[in-house]
Amino acid sequence: MALRVFGLTGGIGSGKSTVAALLRERGVEVVDADALAREAVAKGSAGLAQVVEAFGEEVLDARGDLDRKRLGALVFDDAEDRRRLNAITHPIVRLLSQQRYAELDRQGVELAAYDVPLLFEVGLDHVMRPVVVVHASEATQVERVVRRDGLSEDEARARIRAQLPLAEKRARADYVIENDGTPEQLVAQVDAVLARLRAGSARP
User: Which of 6, 9, 16, 192 is the most exposed place for a label (fewest CB within 10 A)?
Assistant: First the structure.
């Protein structure tokens, strides 16, 4: 059987990484777009050279690695800078993801998840179905981001509102995992969705 890949996305603080970990525990291969993005701009890579050319050597730390926080601060409030950065990194990440899928297929893997925060934003929903969205209320998102990242509530809300609204992602999903409840409720939803995915259901 050929490899089937479904999309996994959410919003900051929605619990997508927790769901990805639960999927891994259940034997699902998870291709992590954030990990690929780090690989795309690793020290010595062509991707990092392009980023330095576009944004200057101040985005490097003392060891010559990309200072992701500094770069993030540069592009967070500037849509044009984000576009320039995405134009460099997204094609590389796309190529790396295709290489991962090909390797998993060679290994005989039947089902994998592509864990990607910007799935809808970069148009992957047009080529990758089904899509699973991990959803949480904004209050829950804020609480988690404040606790995890040490931000103020206003800073957390600014990060949340810089993303495509989670309600829109929810509306465009094939499956929704609600993550405002208990860990046990989350596990039950993951198991139910995974059963449908393994059965080959595109939509509930």
Answer: 192
CA distance between the termini of the chain: 22
Q: What is the pLDDT of residues 130-160, one digit of tens each?
A: 999 999 999 999 999 999 988 899 988 988 8
Asked if residues 159 and 145 have their Cβ atoms less than 8 Å apart, the reply is: yes
CA-to-CA distance for 142 and 117, rounded, in angstroms?
A: 17
Distance CA 134, CA 202 (A): 17
CB atoms under 10 Å from CB of 40, counted, come to 24
Q: Is 43 helix (H, G, I), strand (E, B) or coil?
A: coil
Rounded Cα gap, residues 163 and 170, in angstroms:
13
Q: CB-based contacts of 110: which residues, under 8 Å, 6+ apart?
A: 1, 3, 4
Between CA 10 and CA 8 the distance in angstroms is 7
Which residues in the chain land under pLDDT 50? 201-204
Best CA proximity match to 13, nearest among 199, 115, 160: 160
Cα distance between residue 112 and residue 29, in whole Å? 5
DSSP bridge pairs for 7: 114, 131
